[in-house]
Amino acid sequence: AGMTDPAKRLYRSKTDRMIGGVCSGLADYFNIDPVVVRLLFLLGLICVGGAFVAFLVMWIVVPEQA
Questions:
Q1: At what angle do helices 50-61 and 34-47 cross, to 10 degrees?
Q2: C-beta neighbour count of 22 within 10 angstroms
Q3: Is the pLDDT of residue 46 over 80?
Q4: CA 47 to chain centre
Q5: I need a surface site. Which of 3, 37, 55, 62 has the fewest CB within 10 A?
Q6: Is 2 a residue whose pLDDT tops 60?
Q7: How far apart are the first and last CA of the chain?
Q8: Which residues contact 44 (CB under 8 A, 6 or more apart)?
Q9: Confidence class of residue 31 from pLDDT cuts 50, 70 and 90?
Q10: Is 31 exposed, middle or buried (0-12, 13-18, 19+ CB in 10 A)?
Q11: Is the pLDDT of residue 52 over 70?
């Protein structure tokens, strides 16, 4: 990344969203498929349970894409 590249920002997706656009925003930020992020959240919800709280916090805190 050069000095002229805009800073990479995390946003909730407005176009590719299931519930709040959080997973799509994360997938876009890390340049991976949104399905992978959704599956990771689902696994976290089933195995750990803390993924639901993390999802809610991100839904509130992460700004929506302009």
A1: 130
A2: 27
A3: yes
A4: 19
A5: 3
A6: no
A7: 23
A8: 50, 51, 54
A9: very high
A10: exposed
A11: yes
Region 8-15 average pLDDT = 80
12 has which bridge partners? 64
Which token pair is 14?
């407005």
Max Cα–Cα distance, the chain, nearest Å: 42
- What is the pLDDT of the chain when averaged over all its residues? 82
Burial track 41-50 (b if 16+ CB lie within 10 A, e otherwise): beeeeeeeee
Q: Residue 14 corresponds to which amino acid?
A: K
Give the number of residues written for the chain: 66
Tokens 């519930």 sit at which residue? 19
Ramachandran angles phi, psi of 64, nearest 5°: -75, 150
User: Is 13:25 a contact under the CB 8 Å cutoff?
Assistant: yes
The SS3 call for residue 12 is strand
Q: Tell whether the model's pLDDT for residue 45 goes beyond 60.
A: yes
